[in-house]
Known about the structure:
single chain; alpha/beta; Maf protein; 7-stranded mixed beta sheet; 6 helices; cytoplasm; manganese
Amino acid sequence: xxxxxxxxxHAICLHMASKRVLTFVTGNPRxxxxxxxxxxxxxxxxxxxxxxxxxxxxxxxxxxxxxKCQMAVEKIKSPVIVEDTCLCYNALKGLxxxxxxxxxxxxxxxxxxxxxxxxxxxxxxxxxxxxxxEGPGKDVKLFRGKTDxxxxxxxxxxxxxxxxxxxxxxFSETYAEMETSLKNSIxxxxxxLNGLKDxxxxxxxxxxxxxxxxxxxxxxxxxxxxxxLNE
Length: 231
């Protein structure tokens, strides 16, 4: 019996050792938990977090995510993902947008509601932009997720940012009132992570094909490598 336990332990260790490390740049442990829960354990990537000190940027969500990712990968020197999250009021033409973190810190949930006091339109959307980069000098890939909803009076536990004031379209509960599994299945972060996961799965499959044929993708059965044009 103990022999099988040793073999199982060895297999698990080999599996963990074979996983590639993907660093999520965040200092928020709840965000890491949510991302791990969405991506799942059955993946060839081991997700860890690193609270890299990055400057606060201004601009459009895509530009902010891309620039943060490039700065992070220069410091970490290995595959990274960064996230930029927005809460966008339609009546305010997309504001607070990427500045929601600072609006929330200064105004609180009540103040965020009061921003719409003079408007009939209380609709909004949550936007998540995830940026991935393989390493320094590599291209940044962007993955976006959007969930429409309405800004409401705060309901539910005040544990996770602006969740208590955002009620997704088609639901009677705010993000904060939802079971974690339900929120993770419909959230803006889930939609962006679905795109990232599809990309990583496809990349892993291609890496596996290249490994079986040779590290440069050349068929090992070929006796010699033919020069490429313009090489």
